[in-house]
Amino acid sequence: LHSDVDKGDGSIKYILSGEGASSIFIIDENTGDIHATKRLDREEQAYYTLRAQALDRLTNKPVEPESEFVIKIQDINDNEPKFLDGPYTAGVPEMSPVGTSVVQVTATDADDPTYGNSARVVYSILQGQPYFSVEPKTGIIKTALPNMDREAKDQYLLVIQAKDMVGQNGGLSGTTSVTVTLTDVNDNPPRFPRRSYQYNVPESLPVASVVARIKAADADVGPNAEMEYKIVDGDGLGVFKISVDKDTQEGIITIQKELDFEAKTSYTLRIEAANKHVDSRFQSLGPFSDMTTVKIIVEDVDEPPVFTSRLYSMVVSEAAKVGTIIGTVAAHDPDVSNSPVRYSIDRNTDLERYFNIDANSGVITTAKSLDRETNAVHNITVLAMESQNPAQIGRGYVAITILDINDNAPEFAMEYETTVCENAQPGQVIQKISAVDKDDPPSGHQFYFSLTAEAANNHNFTLQDNKDNTASVLTRRNGFRRQEQSVFYLPIFIVDSGSPSLSSTNTLTIRVCDCDADGIAQTCNAEAYILPAGLSTGALIAILACVLTLLVLVLLIVTMRRRKKEPLIFDEERDIRENIVRYDDEGGGEEDTEAFDMAALRNLNIIRDTKTRRDVTPEIQFLSRPTFKSIPDNVIFREFIWERLKEADVDPCAPPYDSLQTYAFEGNGSVAESLSSLDSISSNSDQNYDYLSDWGPRFKRLADMYGTGPDSLYS
C-alpha cells in the first residue's frame, strides 16, 4: 500500500485492520508492504477483507480516508478426491446382460472447481475386471460380462479410483471398494437325484402317517427354489398323498387310507416336482419340473380280528327270559393265517353281567332279567381274540335296546295335600289329581280313575274322570266339622291302557280345615278347639322354649359337678408292674384293683399305712398295720399271705369274692424266685404250697394254681 501524501521522509505510518490482521497478515508501517505470516489454505478460507489507513506519525491523525481491500487465495491442487459414502455394497441379478447398471459412486475434491483442473475428477476400475466396468465421468458401475452365474460365484469385490487433474500425471487420487452380490433368479430347474425310490411300510401304519420324504435338488434359493409336488400317475392315487414341507422343500408322502397286505402288497407312484415361480426369460434352459418313481412295499403285520360291522344294533324285550338269544356278532382274522376267533364281553361295559356271549359263535344271550325302566339301552363292547395269538384283540360295539312291556302300575303323580273347608258346598272340586307310569307305551298313556268298591257309596266325596289322564275329587255334602272327623281317606283306583292293563289303589288323604271367606285354609288341626281361650300358639312356643332352656342349664350344672370330683388314681409311690384279676362272682366289678396295697409288696422293709378303699365306704378303720421286716427266707411270703388272710377275714371293706393279685416282686433272697403262675409252672422249684388249701375258700383259686394235690388246676 502507498499513499500519495507519503514523501518518503518517514512522516507517514501505515496501519492494518480486519480479518486476520496482525495474526495472518502484517503491514510494514514505514513502506506499507503487506506480508502473510503463515501458510494459507483456500479450503479453509478463500477471501480476507482488510482495511488500511495512512497516519501522520507525529500527530497520529489520518492523512487519507481509510480504504478497504480483499485478499483472494489462489487455489493449488493440494486435495485428493474422496469417496464420502464408501465403501459401497450393491446387488445385481445374475444372468444380467452387459451394461446393466449396478451402482453409482461419487468422489468429491475440496479444490476450487473454477480454477484449473484441480477439482475435475475421472473414475477408473482398478479391481473387478473383466466382470464390471465404470464410466469415467459419472462413476456408474456396469456389468461387463454376460451370463454371470450366482451358483458359480455370487460375490465380487471391486476397487474404484477417482483422480483429479482429469486423470493427468501429477493429479491426486482416492479409492473405494464396492462389494457386488449377484442376486438369485430362477435359472435352475429342479432335478431328482434318483430316477426311482423304494420304501417298505407295515400295513398297521395309521392313516396320516408319513411314509417317505423325497426332495428334488434346485441350485436356486428362496422363492426361486420353492417346489410343488404331485402324484401324476400310479395305482396309489387314492391311497397316498404328497405335500410339501415349506421349510425344507421336501415332498412328504402320507397315507390316506388304511393299508391291507392281504388286499395289495405294493403300490407304484409317479411323482412330479416343479418350481412354483418360473421366470419366462429362462424357459429355454429346459422344463422347470422333473419326474421320479416311488415304489411302496406293504409289509405284513399280525392284525387283530376285524368285526363285520363297526356297530351292531339289537333289540330285546324286557320280558325276555334268561338265555334268550338277542343277536350275533361276527369277526375274522384279516391275516393270511386266518386264525380262529374267540369272543368275550368287556365286563367294564357290562358291570351287572346282563348278557353272555358264546365264545365260538358270537351269539349274545340274556344272563339276567332286564328292566327297561332301569336302563333302556345297553352299550357293550365285544372282544374278539385270536386263538393263536391272544394278544391280538379286536373290538366291536353293540347297542342293545330294551323293548318296553306293561309291567308297572300307574300311581299318583305326586303326594297330594288335599283339604276341604268346613263350609264346602256339595259338588265342589277340592282336588285335581293325575297319574304317572314308568312304562313308555308307543301310543302314549291313557289312565282311568274310579273309586274303589268300598268307597263308591260313601256320602262324603265322589270322583269324576276327566278323560284327559286327570280326575277331579268333589264333595257330596256340606257341613264338614273337624270336631267330628278331621281326616278322610279316599281310596282311588287307577288303571292304565296297557295290554294286559295294570292297576293300583292310591289313597288320597283329605283334611278338614277352617277356611276364610276366599276358601283358603286357615287351621286344619282338630285340637285347636280344646286349647284354652286365652293361650295362643305363640305363648305355647315361648313356654316350651323356656322349659328346654332350664333343662339344658340343669344338665350343664350336673356335668360340671361330675368333672370336679377327684378321679380314681394311684399314689405316686405305687407302681403296678403286672395285675391279673379273676372274678368268679357278682361282687365288686372290674374297677376293683385295690384289694391290697402293692407298695408294701415291692419293699417289705417299710411300715404299711392304713389306707381306705375308694370303691366302698368303710365303717371301721384300723389305726395301724403290722410292720414287715426283712427275713432271709421264703417265710416272708407265707407271713405276708397270712397277714392278708387275717385282714380280709375281719375287714368289712374287703371284697366278698376271690381276688388274685400277681406281683413281679420276688422278695429278698427268695428261693422260689418268682410268684408268677407261668414261671412257677415251668420251674423246677420244690416249694410246697399245699398249705394254701387249708386257708379257706378265699384262697381256693391260689391253692389250685400252686398246689400239688390231685385236684390241682394244672395237675
From TrEMBL:
From the record, give the transmembrane residue ranges. Answer: 529-558
The main location is: membrane
Annotated keywords = Calcium, Cell adhesion, Cell membrane, Cleavage on pair of basic residues, Glycoprotein, Membrane, Metal-binding, Repeat, Signal, Transmembrane, Transmembrane helix
* Record's bilayer topology term: Single-pass type I membrane protein
Q: Could you tell me one molecular function GO term of this UniProt entry?
A: beta-catenin binding
- Gene that specifies this protein: CDH7
**Would you tell me the protein name for this molecule?**
Cadherin 7
Q: Which InterPro entries match?
A: Cadherin, Cadherin-like_dom, Cadherin-like_sf, Cadherin_CS, Cadherin_Y-type_LIR, Catenin-bd_sf
Question: What biological function has been recorded for the protein in this entry?
Answer: Cadherins are calcium-dependent cell adhesion proteins.
Q: Which residues form the Cadherin domain?
A: 3-83, 84-192, 193-307, 308-412, 412-529
Q: Answer yes or no on keyword Transmembrane.
A: yes
Any one cellular-component term (Gene Ontology)? adherens junction
CDD domains this protein is in? Cadherin_repeat
Q: Which SMART domains match?
A: CA
- Per UniProt, what is one Pfam family of this protein? CADH_Y-type_LIR
Give me any GO biological process, just one: adherens junction organization
- Where located? Cell membrane
